[in-house]
Amino acid sequence: MEDAINKPWRPIPSSRITRDQARMLQLFTMPFGMGMNYFLGAWEETALVYNLAWMYNDLGGGDNWIIRNIILGLALSQFNKGGMRVAAEIQGVQIPESSWWWLFITSMILATTFQAQDMKDQEGDRARGRRTAPLVIGDTAARWTIAVPVMAWSFVCPLFWGLNWVGYVLPVGVGALVSARFVMLRGFWADKKTWWLWTFWTAIIWFVPLFKHYGVFVRFARRFGLEFAIERQSSGLQ
């Protein structure tokens, strides 16, 4: 019922697949995913994610916004932890302590701000009886539970990496825009656009460590430019 109102384009509410078929597909792919991650060396994280998904979907963890945020924060930490471990093993390097703390911080960001999604989904959540932030504590209070953490994390993340003022510009600027929109603009379309902006803000936060060493961007630009030049030259020879 919830997705039929909030997200009718998804496969199940749009009748492209049934619930039973989706369940069978999930059960079929889970062993394959576990096997692949065992081979890569991240089976522990995969097992925990599977259990968190079970808690979210089957035990009703996704119906309470506080429990839902905690589950998603933990799940995100395992996605990032597994990828970080695999990458470190391939490169043959040790994971520095700062990376583990950054893993904790980014997981806490999601755990404290993911109710941003609830603002645009109130109609469907109300129909299902989900206990989301705006339906439990009220629309206005829920908006402040997003605006305040977003602004706080926008300063904490550059501070953690010891960036100069340039490193604060994007996270603080976009974070301020997200916070202001949630507090000042209301309605489905306004909240939906602010939700999109929140996802853009999280992407910026994930890139914050790269601002510690600007040479990363220089190397990327040079490599991209070189590959583009080679591609153009190859096209010209054909």
From TrEMBL:
Protein name stated in the entry: UbiA prenyltransferase
Recorded topology in the membrane: Multi-pass membrane protein
Membrane spanning residue stretches: 162-183, 195-214
Alphabetical keyword list: Membrane, Transmembrane, Transmembrane helix
GO cellular component term of the entry, any: membrane
Localization, UniProt: Membrane
Coiled-coil features, chain-numbered ranges: none
Gene Ontology MF terms: transferase activity, transferring alkyl or aryl (other than methyl) groups
